[in-house]
């Protein structure tokens, strides 16, 4: 009994640093946001703490629905684009690159040591009206007028792809890298063409990686803020910049907090459902 | 013969596989090493043919070249008389049972066995019937809906066999298929596979490092070492008439004694071996002064006392004795320090004491004279 209790104490002591930082930096901020969402907006843009559902009532009015749909749509399209680009890259690095695989993975990750906003600014320079790409194309005589790229939907997708490519490639690469290459020989031996081998063996066995990649891209993409503003000109309002606008422009902190809470609930809901589906898929496979 | 995996009757003289001057190089320039070197071999249709050798001898590389997973650096490979050098594995009418079984973990047993038919676009009904028959032939029908991970090693082995044979290959390749099985199951599967090969008449090409397995299962054996075939022959020939020092030492237990020819009188040789003088009839083209090796099986040696005529004798001091049930293996230390092992049946005579002088003898016909 005493030994067990002491063991628990040791465990607690060892966990204390991470537990404390999680409570201070994660749990308490979330609780503050939740508290704000039930607060009342006061006249000067502050919040009067209390318990009112006014913000939530306002949130569920029809004007906010398209914003939620916009966010869902952007997250879904970004995820699809990331998978379409990321899967071949992961496949190449895991199965074709040989001894260069480590180098390629490093090249994929190195840009992500640079600050996010700096990298997005770089894209603004590249895609701008007088930016690198337009100057080059004009200089080479391919176009006569600069192409409008900044402020378009494709520019946002380029930014999303750039931001979420590593989180797409890494889990898929891990799944493909762990693939028993003898299974591909077996498929070859049994008469499968390379394409049949891919669809019947490689792809199904890489699905856990694909499922993880979807989760890693879709959920953060739901709350993304900087990319649509910087590269898309912030034209279509999505949850991320709605929250910023409510807090900073409209000084309506309770409503901003309510949007944050709803986003949190939706994301958590997606994660829980997804994990449940994933588990049942895994169980069916073994 | 079940209708699922029938094949044409074995034309014993027809060649199933011809390996013509096959070389497989690894590395380049001065670093080049040959995993397989100048391999010339014809494997007859319907034959149970085994590549036997220690690990790294090139046997698995040879098998992988026949399967199409690797291409020879030079030379040609004929399958049923057709040159298949450069033809990818999925276009060769050859199937493999892998050492690791390589069953698809995401497919159930039925889907695994039907994989080859499915990728070739065979109708679903036919696949279902043939899968059932193939599983029946390996006694695994009950497992059709199970996942490979739910099966034991021996069961996975059977599924791997069924998955290969359902495609009616002209040659079945088996890469150390019993390596992961325990001894009892291994014996059982050996019997079963041998019996299956006899029933189907398909050419089986088997790779193993286990000489006993090779001897019991094969019609013919190619003994390989360092990428070079040392000897090709039936089990009896390989065991009783090894062609060189490597085969003699690799197959079974063998005493190998350095010897030198001291005199020759027609086909009658006199040799000097480990301090003993031996008279020996032989037809090899050897001259006095030539070095050679005497190969004697331990079971061919027996203890003698006094002078018995007509046999070859070695005298020395008894070394360690190892009791192995029906027999005891004695070591006899000869005058020059060479150890000669004799396997003697127990109960014939009292166990001699270590250190005591003793003489071992064998019939001249039990000795193989090797030149390399």
Automatic annotation (TrEMBL), chain B:
Residues 17-251 form the ABC transporter domain. CDD domains: ABC_PotA_N. InterPro entries: AAA+_ATPase, ABC_SmlMolc_Importer, ABC_transporter-like_ATP-bd, ABC_transporter-like_CS, Mo/tungstate-bd_C_term_dom, P-loop_NTPase, PotA-like, PotA_ATP-bd. Keywords: ATP-binding, Cell membrane, Membrane, Nucleotide-binding, Translocase, Transport. It catalyses: ATP + H2O + polyamine-[polyamine-binding protein]Side 1 = ADP + phosphate + polyamineSide 2 + [polyamine-binding protein]Side 1. Its EC number is 7.6.2.11. Coiled coil: none annotated. It is an enzyme of class 7 (translocase). Pfam families: ABC_tran, TOBE_2. One of its GO terms (molecular function) is ATP binding. The complex is composed of two ATP-binding proteins (PotA), two transmembrane proteins (PotB and PotC) and a solute-binding protein (PotD). Part of the ABC transporter complex PotABCD involved in spermidine/putrescine import. Responsible for energy coupling to the transport system. Belongs to the ABC transporter superfamily. Spermidine/putrescine importer (TC 3.A.1.11.1) family. This is Spermidine/putrescine import ATP-binding protein PotA. It comes from Shinella lacus.
């Amino acid at each position: 009994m005493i030994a067990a209790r002491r063991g628990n104490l040791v465990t607690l002591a060892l966990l204390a640093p991470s537990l404390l930082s999680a409570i201070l930096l994660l749990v308490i901020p979330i609780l503050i946001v939740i508290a704000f969402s039930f607060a009342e907006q006061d006249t000067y843009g502050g919040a009067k703490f209390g318990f009112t559902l006014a913000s939530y009532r306002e949130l569920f009015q029809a004007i906010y629905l398209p914003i939620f749909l916009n966010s869902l749509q952007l997250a879904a399209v970004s995820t699809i684009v990331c998978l379409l680009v990321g899967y071949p890259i992961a496949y190449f690095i895991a199965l074709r690159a040989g001894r260069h695989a480590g180098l390629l993975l490093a090249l994929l990750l190195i840009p992500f040591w640079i600050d996010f906003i700096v990298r997005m600014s770089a894209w603004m320079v590249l895609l701008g009206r007088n930016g690198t790409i337009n100057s080059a194309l004009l200089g080479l005589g391919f176009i006569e007028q600069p192409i409008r790229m900044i402020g378009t939907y494709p520019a946002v997708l380029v930014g999303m792809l750039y931001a979420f490519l590593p989180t797409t490639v890494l889990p898929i690469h891990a799944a493909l890298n762990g693939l028993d290459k003898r299974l591909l020989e077996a498929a070859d031996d049994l008469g499968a063409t390379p394409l049949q081998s891919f669809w019947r063996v490689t792809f199904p066995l890489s699905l856990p990686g694909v499922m993880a990649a979807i989760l890693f891209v879709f959920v953060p993409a739901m709350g993304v803020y900087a990319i649509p503003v910087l590269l898309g000109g912030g034209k279509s309002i999505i949850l991320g910049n709605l929250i910023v606008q409510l807090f900073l422009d409209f000084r309506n902190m309770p409503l901003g907090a309510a949007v944050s809470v709803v986003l949190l609930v939706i994301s958590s809901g997606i994660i829980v459902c997804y994990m449940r589906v994933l588990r049942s898929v895994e169980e069916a496979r073994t | 013969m079940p209708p699922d995996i029938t094949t044409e009757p074995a034309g014993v003289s027809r060649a199933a596989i011809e390996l013509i001057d096959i070389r497989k190089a690894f590395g380049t320039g001065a670093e080049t090493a040959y995993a397989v070197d100048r391999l010339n071999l014809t494997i007859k249709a319907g034959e149970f043919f085994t590549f036997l050798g220690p690990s790294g001898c090139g046997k698995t590389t040879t098998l992988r070249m026949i399967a199409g997973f690797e291409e020879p650096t030079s030379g040609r490979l004929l399958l049923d008389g057709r040159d298949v050098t450069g033809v990818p594995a999925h276009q060769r009418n050859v199937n493999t049972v892998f050492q690791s079984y390589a069953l698809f973990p995401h497919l159930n047993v039925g889907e695994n066995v039907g994989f080859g038919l499915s990728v070739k676009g065979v109708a679903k009904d036919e696949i279902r019937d043939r899968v059932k028959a193939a599983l029946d032939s390996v006694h695994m029908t009950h497992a059709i809906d199970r996942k490979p991970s739910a099966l034991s090693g021996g069961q996975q082995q059977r599924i791997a066999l069924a998955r290969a044979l359902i495609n009616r290959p002209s040659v079945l390749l088996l890469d150390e298929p019993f390596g992961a099985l325990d001894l009892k199951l291994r014996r059982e599967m050996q019997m079963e596979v041998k019996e299956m090969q006899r029933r189907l008449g398909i050419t089986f090409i088997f790779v193993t490092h286990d000489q006993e397995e090779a001897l019991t299962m094969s019609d013919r054996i190619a003994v390989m070492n360092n990428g070079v075939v040392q000897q090709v022959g039936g089990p009896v020939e390989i065991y009783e008439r090894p062609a060189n020092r490597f085969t003699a030492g690799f197959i079974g237990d063998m005493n190998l004694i350095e010897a030198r020819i001291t005199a020759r009188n027609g086909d009658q040789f006199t040799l000097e071996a480990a301090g003993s003088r031996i008279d020996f009839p032989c037809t090899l083209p050897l001259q006095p002064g030539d070095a050679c090796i005497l190969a004697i099986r331990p079971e061919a040696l027996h203890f003698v006392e006094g002078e018995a005529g007509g046999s070859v004798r070695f005298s020395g001091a008894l070394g360690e004795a190892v009791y192995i049930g029906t027999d005891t293996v004695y070591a006899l230390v000869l005058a020059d320090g060479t150890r000669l092992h004799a396997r003697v049946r127990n109960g014939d005579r009292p166990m001699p004491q270590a250190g005591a002088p003793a003489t071992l003898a064998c019939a001249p016909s039990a000795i193989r004279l090797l030149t390399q």
